[in-house]
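Internal ticket #5521
Category: modeling
Description: The requester needs a full-assembly model to guide mutagenesis choices. All entity lines are attached below as received. Residue total reported by intake: 308.
Assigned to: D.W.
Attached entities:
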Amino acid sequence: MSALSVKHLIGIKYLTIDDIELIFKTTDSFKEVINRPIKKVPTLRDTTVVNLFFENSTRTRISFELAEKRLSADIVNFSASSSSVSKGETLIDTVNNILAMKVDMVVMRHPSPGAPMFLARHINASIINAGDGTHEHPTQALLDAYSIREKLGTVKGKKVCIIGDIKHSRVALSNIYCLQKLGAEVMLVGPPTLMPTYIEALGVKVEYNLKKALEWCDVANVLRIQLERQDIKYFPSLREYALYFGINKSLLDSLKKEIVIMHPGPINRGVEISSDVADSEHSIILNQVENGVAVRMATLFLLSGRKE
Ligand code: NCD
């Protein structure tokens, strides 16, 4: 297979296993490219990509921008706070105006779940969802699964725990879809108040005891508490959260085995993860960041429809 089954990357839900395998195979070759002394290839020359960020972002925005630059695309950066959105313009009008300037691809982050899907239905350019509210964050899940495959050889048959604020996390949902498609077993861990009702319907295990979950898994993907999306208090204090759901060195040392620690960032040191774990040899957090650029290069290339 040499082409994706989709025109847009809206969510992992819409990808086939072959799509994911193709993205990984393409990522392998782009990883080789970004480790060369000259990291740039002409693949997307004459393709214009607009990065539309309606929500704050550091690493995802930089990662996409770097991926686009390494592919020689022309880039336009847009952030909602400095645009006419603050003057009351609608999403469709904003995007149609940008597209009238002949843009080929749109990378979009938006606080509303479904915003990229809505755009995909109304405009012609290829859309990549860079995170839509609490819904999906497909490139994050792809880079997470790619990093597990790189570290452990395969994703199939691995046991992966996703720990923390499952309710408000788009990383969690995209990871569940991606890991399950690739044949991993998924367990969700966190306070009951941050666990979506009926989440077991997705075929995941749910555990409220962190130590038990860590004893079960090969990989722990630790999430940040999404305080900015929480309208009420879901737990008494960050200190209490850290006590029951924070990963620290003594907890890892008490396990009878080694597990791989992941985090999509940004990290809140001392809350969901302690510094000695985040910076330890168990952690592949910076590998995830490195792989993020290559995975995004692969996604941009495959959705651009270019052949070489
Ligand atoms: C995640 C996000 O924005 O959804 N971060 C990221 O993409 N690097 C997770 C988070 O914000 O906690």
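Resolution: model delivered.
Comment from assignee: The longest strand covers residues 126-132.
Ticket closed.
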